[in-house]
Amino acid sequence: MINYSYPLYRPPAEANNIILQVTHGCSYNHCSFCSMYKSKDFEVKSLDEVHKEIDSLARSYPEAKKVFLADGDALCLNTGHLLDILKYLKKSFVKLSRISLYATSQNLLEKSDEDLSLLKENLLNLVYFGIETGNESLLKKITKGVNAQQIITSLQKATKAGMKTSTTVILGIGGEAYTQEHIKDTAELINQVEVTYLSTLQLGLDEDIKSTFLKHFDKFIMLSDKQVLDEQQKFLEFLNPKNKVIFRSNHASNALHLAGTFPKDKQRLIAEVKEALEEGAKALVPKMFRGF
User: Fold this and answer.
1) pLDDT of the chain, 292 residues: tens digit per residue
2) What single-letter DSSP state applies at residue 92?
3) Are 83 and 111 in contact (CB under 8 A)?
4) In whole angstroms, what is the distance from residue 154 CA to residue 148 CA?
């Protein structure tokens, strides 16, 4: 029997894969825009409990090929602890090809290059990573805990270890006052690194964190859908990544869903945003069907 601690989150791409909860909550848990783990105290699950749950999952899903390690930033676990879990998973799921998890810049910066390479060798080959913004002022205002250079360095470390990175940017996170700086600086940051996947989300604030988020701004004005699409268009125009990047804006928060690959589909994606701007609300996902 699996003893999940709720709420339990996983990336959309992990919907059909094994979810193994190796920690409860997030070890940092100070990002002002995020309410995902505010109801939980951070806790590391014992290896004995994790082993038992792996045994149970392996009996139920012996053919499983992919496993996601929850909760918020399982890469915070020390390398020896993580290696034990990875090796036990490899032994238990004979067809296993990929293990993934959420990670923060802090997690990656705390790991040595040797640690990350060793984890990669044991099938930890995909990291989900929230960039949110590349603007220094906004990184402070959203209490991300790192600066732009640290984000760049941490992503470079993951790439050097051979890990794929699935990164997210939040449209509208600077409100009206910071929209230009947010988009320009975020695109410039991404242009300096090599990410595998890139997604844009649209800012949403739960009521229980809204006051904490807003207190860091003199005056915060949420963007309209049109302003968010303006940000999306500018972001796509500024993007010139070093490598092939799979791009998506299909998160439940998005007013407009996009899908393509950079650089091949850049102009098509921009054209789709322009078309949506011309068509107005009828081209967008109704607000009742969106959620952050």
Assistant:
1) 688 989 998 998 999 999 999 999 999 999 999 888 888 999 999 999 999 999 999 999 999 999 999 999 999 999 999 999 999 999 999 999 999 999 999 999 999 999 999 999 999 999 999 999 999 999 999 999 999 999 999 999 999 999 999 999 999 999 999 999 999 999 999 999 999 999 999 998 889 899 999 999 999 999 999 999 999 999 999 999 999 999 999 888 888 899 999 999 999 999 999 999 998 877 777 776 677 6
2) H
3) no
4) 10
b/e 103-139 (16+ beta carbons within 10 angstroms → b): bbbbbbeebeeebbbbbbebbbbbbbbbbbbbbeebb
> From CA 108, how far away is CA 76, in angstroms rounded?
8
> What b/e readout covers 6-33, taking b as 16+ CB neighbours within 10 angstroms?
eeeebbebbeebbbbbbbbbbbbeebbb
What are the residues whose beta carbons fall under 8 Å from the beta carbon of 86, sequence distance 6 or more? 99, 119, 122, 123, 124
The answer to whether 186 and 149 are in contact (CB under 8 A) is: no
Q: Which residue has the tokens 């309410």?
A: 35
Q: Quote the DSSP letter at residue 128.
A: E
Check if the beta carbon of residue 155 is closer than 8 Å to that of residue 121.
no
User: What domains appear along the chain, each with residue ranges and CATH number?
Assistant: 12-289 (3.80.30.20)
Rounded distance between C-alpha atoms, residue 213 and residue 200, angstroms: 20
d(CA 109, CA 76): 10
